[in-house]
Amino acid sequence: MTEQIAKAEETLRNTNDPGVIQKVLDDNPELQGLGNYEYGWADSDDAGASAKRGVDADVVADISAKKDEPEWMLKLRQKGLKYFDRKPMPTWGADLSEIDFDNIKYFVRSTEKQAQTWEDLPEDIRNTYEKLGIPEAERERLVAGVAAQYESEVVYHQIREDLEEQGVIFMDTDTALKEHPEFFEEYFGSVIPVGDNKFAALNTAVWSGGSFVYVPKGVHVEIPLQAYFRINTENMGQFERTLIIADEDSYVHYIEGCTAPIYNTDSLHSAVVEIVVKKNARVRYTTIQNWSTNVYNLVTKRAVVDEGGTMEWIDGNIGSKVTMKYPAVYLTGEHAKGETLSVAFAGENQHQDTGSKMVHMAPNTSSSIVSKSVARSGGRASYRGLVQVNAEAKNSANSVVCDALLVDTISKTDTYPYIDIREDDVTLGHEATVSRVSEEQLFYLMSRGLAEDEAMAMIVRGFIEPIARELPMEYALELNRLIELQMEGSVG
Amino acid sequence: MSTLEIKDLHVSIETDQGTKEILKGVSLTISSGEKHAIMGPNGSGKSTLASTIAGHPRYEVTSGSITLDGEDVLEMEPDERAQAGLFLAMQYPVEVPGVTMTNFLRTAKTAIDGEAPKLRTWTKEVKDAMEKLRIDADFANRNVNEGFSGGEKKRVEILQLELFKPKIAVLDETDSGLDIDALRVVSEGVNRAHEENNMGTLLITHYTRILNYIKPDYVHVFVDGKVAEQGGPELADELEANGYDRFLAAVSAA
Ligand SMILES: Nc1ncnc2c1ncn2[C@@H]1O[C@H](COP(=O)(O)OP(=O)(O)OP(=O)(O)O)[C@@H](O)[C@H]1O
Ligand SMILES: [Mg+2]
Question: What family is this protein classified in (chain A) (predicted)?
Answer without folding.
Answer: Belongs to the iron-sulfur cluster assembly SufBD family.
